[in-house]
Amino acid sequence: MTASSDKTRVLTGITTTGTPHLGNYVGAIKPAIAASQDPSVQSYYFLADLHALIKCQDPRRVEASRLEIAATWLALGLDTDNAIFYRQSDIPEIPELTWMLSCVCAKGLMNRAHAYKAAVAENEEAGNQDPDRGITMGLFGYPVLMAADILMFNAHRVPVGRDQIQHIEMARDMAGRFNHLYKGQYFAQPEAVVDERVQVLNGLDGRKMSKSYENTIPLFVSEKKLLKLVRKIKTNSLEPGEPKDPDTCTLFQIYSAFATAEETAAMRSEYEAGIGWGEAKNRVFEYLNAHLREPRERYQALLEDPGHIEAVLRQGADRARSEAAPFMDRLRHAVGLGRFV
Ligand code: TRP
Fold first, then answer.
1. Cβ(65) to ligand 1 under 6 A?
2. Residue owning the nearest CA to atom 13 of ligand 1
3. Average confidence (pLDDT) over 139-145
4. Is 147 in the pocket of ligand 1 (CB under 6 A)?
5. What is the DSSP letter of 20?
6. Minimal CA–CA distance to 167: which of 105, 228, 224, 234?
């Protein structure tokens, strides 16, 4: 086995359907890049582009999102000598394992998956005769593909948002059934890691920043656009000179997710002293812009050099497959699909 086998394996996937925004950065990208610098950890970060096909059947959007997300992680300093960074679709062992797991996974387990249940509930609310209307096998089996992502590399820890905890439990279930049926310790039991300290950023309208609410600030928009978006952040009608409450303010929340403790404390005093909204917005824009300028330049340069991104991801896929391929051989033997001689 490889030297990485005694390290804690941390794995997470990013579905490639959108453009990364400030909320993604604060909630997922920044903590993941920091975690990957821990020498006791081997991290596996991948573009979940097979998952993207479930939600998005616009090939240009999937393609663009893969490139943008890869460029974002690289521009923000992911060290790919350290972390194994790859595209899910470059690892053919993953869909192969998906099939093996499908054959041990109870259909009833999938009936209970939140995403599937939500889609059925929507059909029922809309009064559709067929509760499964518009639901593909991809959506139904989504947790099996996700289990394969995780179990392929025997990940110990899987950092995810709350909404994904159920999927990790399902992966544990499939791991246990496979081990039991085929009488061996093939798969470790993965654990979901939900970091309570990680901030959930609010968006322009004050609700959670999310692509589905169309209230995001994309990470690498132009300076002009960034200013425009910051000016759009919802505030209240208090006048300059009137004290303002930082703790209920989206603008302040966004600022504090980026600023140091001292800078945040200083801004808090400004709120109490009645800083005007226009002034506060200018300050937040200046701050964000100063911090995003360099990564934005690197991001633009990366997008202009897709060959480089391709090479980085291929190298990541080679490293990932050097583990996945021999493991898949073992699994084939386990289920009776090994070579004859
Ligand atoms: N389903 C996850 C999400 O939407 C993305 C994902 C795919 C993932 N495969 C994974 C996350 C494996 C962790 C581990 O956020």
1. no
2. 12
3. 97
4. no
5. -
6. 105
